[in-house]
Amino acid sequence: MGFFKKLFSGTPTKRDKNYYTFNVKCTRCGEVIEGRVDLDNDLSLEYEDDRSVYFVRKGLMGNNRCFQQIEVELKFDSSRQLLEQQVTGGTFIE
Ligand SMILES: [Zn+2]
User: Fold this and answer.
1) Distance from the CA of 57 to the center of ligand 1, in angstroms?
2) What is the pLDDT of residue 42?
3) Separation of 75 CA from ligand 1 center, angstroms?
4) What average pLDDT is seen over the chain?
5) Which of 5, 14, 20, 83 has the most neighbouring CB atoms within 10 Å?
6) 25 CA → ligand 1 middle, Å
């Protein structure tokens, strides 16, 4: 992880680890897969109209013998609050 940290480090920030977790159910086999986004390292900054948003795309795969590829896209605002979520290959569950 140290390698990636160095790659993306702009100004070093001291914050507690910050994760956003979610559950996705595979549309093919019904397995529930937990996904986790590292809000410090996984997000990429994008500019949208006059605001900046954080964007992350995650590929998930379950433990079943099911090769459904589930792809999740999440968008957060500058204070890391979820704005939008999309999933292909599965559905979000609470
Ligand atoms: Zn599946």
Assistant:
1) 19
2) 96
3) 24
4) 87
5) 20
6) 8
Nearest to 72 by CA among 30, 25, 17: 25
Distance CA 94, CA 77 (A): 21
Distance 73 CA to ligand 1 centre (A): 18
pLDDT for position 5: 55
CA dihedral 44, 47, 50, 51 (to 10 degrees): -10
pTM, entire model: 0.77
**pLDDT digits 0-9 by tens, 11-42:** 555 556 889 999 999 999 999 999 999 999 99
CA of 47 to the centre of ligand 1 (A): 34
The answer to whether the beta carbons of residues 53 and 46 sit under 8 Å apart is yes
CA of 42 to the centre of ligand 1 (A): 24
For residue 62, report the distance from its CA to the centre of ligand 1, in Å. Answer: 6
